[in-house]
Batch of 2 targets.
Target 1
Amino acid sequence: MKKIHTSHNQSPEVEKNLPGNVQLNNNWKPLAFIAGLIAVFLVLRFVKGSGPDINKMKTQIIPEAVKKVINNPSTKVSILNVKEASGLVEFQLEVAGQKYTSYISRDGKILFTSGIKVDELSKSQQPAKETKKLTCDDVPKTDKASLTAYVVADCPFGLQMQRVFKKALNEAPDLSSYLNIKYIGSVENGKITSMHGDKEAQENLKQICIREEQKEKYWPYVSCYMMEGKTDECLITTGVDTSELTACTGDANRGLKYAQADFTLANKYGVSGSPTLISNEKQTVSEFDFGGRTPDAIKQLVCCGSKEKPGFCASELSKADIAVSLSKTDEAAEGSGTTTSAAGCAPAN
């Protein structure tokens, strides 16, 4: 069989039979070495994945994305345990003492404030129960509807719900006689407690006392507090009678009695997470079955619980994203998607 020689100087010892009996000389070795380096580079790049490294994700991209969602530079946020996970970047987001396992795309354009690890679902022996979405027909009807939000003062999502109520009242003032805010907690050994510690418990107590004894100051005070959490400053600027407030919080037959009434109802309805909505003092309902955490969803729930529809039912209220946590603005940063995130705070196990 004929051989093809690429060099007249090639010695018989160097010659080797290749497939097809094509003969090459030693010039192939540098080219093969370079090709090998290129292949290794491409493999390493593929394994590493595209996008910024983990350190840049932790120090720059994740903080910028979270800042857009929280929308308040004074809110204390921590980003912990950043690592790669199934093509995304997983991290622990800590806001106001609560931790959320969160995920973000490498370009920082998609942020998931919570996620489900699919490979862990098989560990559960019980199949997941499908949750039926409520309709207006499912909401119990009464002559005078009520919608109560159970919250704690420093939960980012409880603050969001209070802000939604405030905005709904601004757009439809007649809602004021239908909406209520109550608090979650307990009284132990003559002292009020709350899921995020004593500071929150004392703030809950102040807000309860203002609601009960200085009702006209409640929403002005809460509206101020929701901006930066400055209790003392807000008490002054909103004209709360601090002497009466101190008397209320220090009197077990006033402040603690009011608080215990809230907590008793919360226990009756099985409320544990902030925020939780109770319609007509009968049924737990979700604003997300009616469009999200927005003023319009709150209005719909009130109207669905009414035998006779109030006049504001004919109007459409805001459906804009509402800011989470402390915020100087009511509306969230554009595209943050907070109205569709059913997040809340719950006591630590």
Note: The first strand starts at residue 77 and ends at 85.
Target 2
Amino acid sequence: MENHVMQEVCRMIGPDWGDGLFCPGGSYGNGTAINLARFERYPDVKKKGSNHIPRQAIFASEECHYSVYKYASFLGIGEDNVFSIRTNDMGEMIVEDLEKKIEQQIEEGAVPLVVVATFGTTVKGAFDPINQIADVSKKHSMWLHIDAAWGGSLIFSQKHRSKLNGIERANSVVINVHKLLAVPQQCSMLLIRDKGILHKCFSRGAEYLFQKDKHYDKTYDVGDKYLQCGRKCDVFKFWFMWKAKGSSGFASHVDALMDLAEYFEEQVNKRSEFMLVSKRQYINVCFWYLPRYLRGKANVLEHSVELNKVAPKIRAFMVENGSLMLGYQPLKQLPNFSGLSRRILL
């Protein structure tokens, strides 16, 4: 079952894709992908460790998921070797800044190891320009990983699949079907283009589990390519829902959520008491609620100190009254704003 589901999703990404793992969340998938990138560049690291290899550099959007930093620390690469790439007003990675920072690290003696792009950033729902990023990655012989934990399930929608164009050029992709598709938590997948690298990197061949003289096909023993030993059978959740809804059911689900987000954005634009933070790219709709004295003003952000207090107060009031749990957050220099995303629509 696990092999079948993984192969089917790989087929949806591209013809060259053929392996993957079910993961306890997208963070784990991102960290595993970084480890695979290092193993591909330095296969001896599996046995000899990392003392003999040069400093490696990871490049990710300034709006990337924090797990990139956590796993850089966990893997011994170090948080200081994760280089933040500037984003535009839409939240998309600026490729010229990526190229510049890669060149800077090469001059300083580092090995550019991996670029982490994002399809559906946590706050704005931005999609990085993957084809341009893939060109840069290829130029510098870097592993390209896409954190599509939030946005990757658009792969089921014919209407919105184009947002993922270029996904097949990556080396690895994380998709959390427990997010957009509402599969029960936890259900996350790390998909890999190289069909043999997972086993090469992680296998240990424990004889009490993976005997060579079993009476059945050993390809059913997928456990040796996992870092985990005991794990939950997450594939059941996805398989049962896929069987019940079908691919067309998933597509309808995704399209309906995108339609709702479009409607909500239209309503924000129609009302003087609200202001969009940036144009919607995905389900995330980011907005400010404006107090009366700020409505209609052209210089709203000059009142950032006052505006910063509004969203937390609204959230606290709504939670205490049991009406709705609406998220909020600051971003770069922007004051706190509210955000409609999967938490509300699902």
Note: DSSP finds eleven helices and eleven strands in the chain.
